[in-house]
Amino acid sequence: MGVLACYAIDPDINLELQHGIPLQTSWGTVFPMYHPAGGLHEPKKMLMIRNDWVRLGKYLKGKLRLPVDQHPITDYQEIGADELLTDYLECNDYTQPLACDTEVTRKREPFCLSYSRWPGTGRLIRADDKDALEVFQCMLDRWEGPILFHNWLFDSGVVEKMGLRFPAKRIVDTMVRAYHLGNLPQGLKALAYRLLGMQMQDFDDLVTPYSTPLCLSYLREAVNHEWPKPEEQTVRDPQGQWKLYKPQSMSTKLKRFLTDYQKHPKDVFQAWDNWKDDSSQIETVCGEWPGKDIRHVPMDKTIHYACRDADATMRLWPVLQGMTRQVRRKLSEHWDD
Fold first, then answer.
1. In 10 A of CB 72, how many CB atoms?
2. What is the pLDDT of residues 121-145, one digit of tens each?
3. What Å distances lie between residue 148 and 123, 173, 176, CA to CA?
4. Tens of pLDDT along 255-266?
5. Is 334 helix (H, G, I), strand (E, B) or coil?
6. What CATH code would you report for 75-203+297-334?
């Protein structure tokens, strides 16, 4: 019970994601739970804590039902104007739900739009494919069913930059629906895992392996630049006496970081953020810092990542609807019965 206890058993346990779900560890089977004291500090967690105890009882009786991914084989593709036009013309029911999601670059510029019309499927449209977006707009203009987004407050600005106009009265925010139910996480990946049994990749896990080499190469190029020697500064020592202080040169900082990184690899992105004024000085000379950017990821992996978000939102919708119908009839612990 609680974060510290779970960490002592297995540091990889994610309590928000896995509380109330039996797991296999090197210690055997464990059942992670929120600590009861957490409800005193955060009353909103009382529903989750109560839910954990009910789930534990079901587990001990062999009656706990764990969600299983109903669509392990998926159909995720990038789609252009011609394929989208065919999809649009073959659509004979505009009253069904349409789930959408967006991805952005490091500078918050639109990268792509993904959508799903059926569970287990997803299509990706690049933000710069104007012809495809024009066809998609035609589909939006005819759509009569709910249009699902998970966190519309973020996605609304992205689709606006793409030039898309979504009918406001059709928008349903599944994050808001989950929040109103009170006993659920709001993150899409946590919801999909807990309610649908879907395994989803985190953005950092997707991007970091591809962005890290580019950032290290950027720093190696920066080392080769002839940096000016920093001017001496007058500072006070702990005793209050004035003395001359010679700041570390940029070349020395970069060399030291790369040497330390070879011995003990660290988070290069966090190190960059910690440099503050130095980082802006380097960018002035060497150009923009690559950072974590979805554009660094191979397109096949991006397609799967982006389409899976739209697919998960589509699959969540009927589950959230069912829970909403149960609110006044059952305690939250029994909504999935």
1. 10
2. 999 999 999 999 999 999 999 999 9
3. 15, 6, 11
4. 888 888 888 888
5. helix
6. 3.30.420.10
